[in-house]
Amino acid sequence: MEVSLNHVSFAYQSDSPFATQALQDITFTVGDGEFVGIIGHTGSGKSTMIQLFNGLLFPTEGTVTVNGIEVKKGIPLKELRKEVGLVFQYPEYQLFEETVEKDVAFGPKNLGLEEEEIRERVKDALRQVNLDPDEVGSRSPFDLSGGQRRRVAIAGVLAMHPHILIMDEPAAGLDPMGRNEMLALLQELHGKGLTVFMVSHSMDD
Predict the structure, then answer these.
(1) Nearest 5 degrees, angle CA 149-CA 155-CA 156?
(2) In terms of Cα–Cα distance, which of 194, 192, 160 is closest to 30?
(3) For residues 117 and 45, what is the distance between their CA atoms, to the nearest angstrom?
(4) Which helix (H) or strand (E) holds 3?
(5) What number is the average pLDDT over the span 126-149?
(6) What stretches of 31-168 adopt beta strand conformation (E)?
């Protein structure tokens, strides 16, 4: 599952006098199964760039391709987002269901999968982030610790069975132990064959 940017530029409000250039002439290719770190200070365009990978944004100039398919307006974005899982900074703020199980099942349900398949995906995804589905599945995500909530949010993305996982500042706001556990989890997921992009402003990460 290859990701390629070819002379990509992006500007916010590109058609107005107040246009803000976020990316300028970016070219690179990432092969299947790689682990890539994207680092830069706040405002350098990191989060803008990763949103081009799954069609949340489209380049002002140049082309973005995922698995040989150009990411542009008009393509079936639902299919693209099954392949490219994007976890935003503080993803736990996006949890909204009454139980962990329902939250992780949200994406697979929108794919129209059978109930049995959804249940299996939920259990598998929770195990991948080192949470016991029997222990946390029926609990409210808001009763969990911050680190656990973040794992639930990641499980919701993994339940879609993406080939590419993009993590935006995955250690943000975590204590040292939580940070180490999160970075170890990313290594585990990469070891299972996922292509991983990790965005950070921290060279330590």
Answers:
(1) 95
(2) 194
(3) 38
(4) strand 3-12
(5) 93
(6) 35-39, 61-66, 69-70, 84-87, 164-168
